[in-house]
């Protein structure tokens, strides 16, 4: 076990874990922030998406030893115009069904809009194809991203 | 059953087994030969000295490149030299899952899923995800999939399609580049490229010194 100090959502968390522990489990079990979900554990589903220095990463495929001083943002701490617009549109269109994948979906959708304010359907596919939804809410996810983009246009 | 009949049955069974072994033996022997013969074993590389007997320089160069081609045609190399915009993965070279494309810098489309969304500085076997600091898809002009080894050879020498590398830089890239080197250390569950990077670099260097002729086809 090794002691780490992780900066998650602007707060420092002391976490004592094996260096090979996936960041996902340091966040969930160490920092007790359980909004980030375990889906597949092999970077195939996107449920565990967080930001590392504002870049989306799958927290299941990153060992805690590789995080260093990077700023981690989880669904509990995500903010800014894009995230607010996405969350509002998610509520408006009632996007989630079972909801399990939705924190990862929202993290990826907000990251997309931060880099591409007017995404095409193809842009959405390229940003969101790695976020799997077993309830197949993809049509509503796409509509909500387009809706959030319109909101951000002002 | 009489003792005689039992003996005849035993002899018959033994004879059948002998026939089966006699028929099967050549193929077992053949597989063993292929595995132990570096010339035909795709998992190992013949050393440069194995080609010294080819007196014709052009033929020697082509043979050296053919041997180095065992590495170039390995899925560890080919997967990130796709002909289209999407890399492939695994030994079967299936389309990369999830969908990710080359993008303007070989690291994913702007705003889309990036290589670094999942791939980091090192292999992470706990998640089965490979990694390297230079992880990226090769530029389209360096696409190898669907091409013959001869075509790849010509392409590799073309400075318009090799990142403007002269032969010395090309040899250095093959022999020393850390992302090329990942091919021999791909993490659990992946077949490494044949031989070693050192052997591969020596083959490429010898090919260059022999005039860098390409295999036909």
Automatic annotation (TrEMBL), chain A:
<dbReference type="Pfam" id="PF01799">
    <property type="entry name" value="Fer2_2"/>
</dbReference>
<dbReference type="GO" id="GO:0047121">
    <property type="term" value="F:isoquinoline 1-oxidoreductase activity"/>
</dbReference>
<dbReference type="Pfam" id="PF00111">
    <property type="entry name" value="Fer2"/>
</dbReference>
<dbReference type="InterPro" id="IPR036884">
    <property type="entry name" value="2Fe-2S-bd_dom_sf"/>
</dbReference>
<keyword id="KW-0408">Iron</keyword>
<dbReference type="InterPro" id="IPR002888">
    <property type="entry name" value="2Fe-2S-bd"/>
</dbReference>
<feature type="domain" description="2Fe-2S ferredoxin-type">
    <location>
        <begin position="2"/>
        <end position="78"/>
    </location>
</feature>
<keyword id="KW-0411">Iron-sulfur</keyword>
<keyword id="KW-0479">Metal-binding</keyword>
<protein>
    <submittedName>
        <fullName>Isoquinoline 1-oxidoreductase alpha subunit</fullName>
        <ecNumber>1.3.99.16</ecNumber>
    </submittedName>
</protein>
<dbReference type="InterPro" id="IPR012675">
    <property type="entry name" value="Beta-grasp_dom_sf"/>
</dbReference>
<keyword id="KW-0001">2Fe-2S</keyword>
<keyword id="KW-0560">Oxidoreductase</keyword>
<dbReference type="GO" id="GO:0051537">
    <property type="term" value="F:2 iron, 2 sulfur cluster binding"/>
</dbReference>
<dbReference type="InterPro" id="IPR051452">
    <property type="entry name" value="Diverse_Oxidoreductases"/>
</dbReference>
<dbReference type="GO" id="GO:0046872">
    <property type="term" value="F:metal ion binding"/>
</dbReference>
<dbReference type="InterPro" id="IPR036010">
    <property type="entry name" value="2Fe-2S_ferredoxin-like_sf"/>
</dbReference>
<dbReference type="InterPro" id="IPR001041">
    <property type="entry name" value="2Fe-2S_ferredoxin-type"/>
</dbReference>
<dbReference type="InterPro" id="IPR006058">
    <property type="entry name" value="2Fe2S_fd_BS"/>
</dbReference>
TrEMBL record, chain B:
<feature type="signal peptide">
    <location>
        <begin position="1"/>
        <end position="24"/>
    </location>
</feature>
<dbReference type="InterPro" id="IPR036280">
    <property type="entry name" value="Multihaem_cyt_sf"/>
</dbReference>
<keyword id="KW-0732">Signal</keyword>
<protein>
    <submittedName>
        <fullName>Cytochrome c553</fullName>
    </submittedName>
</protein>
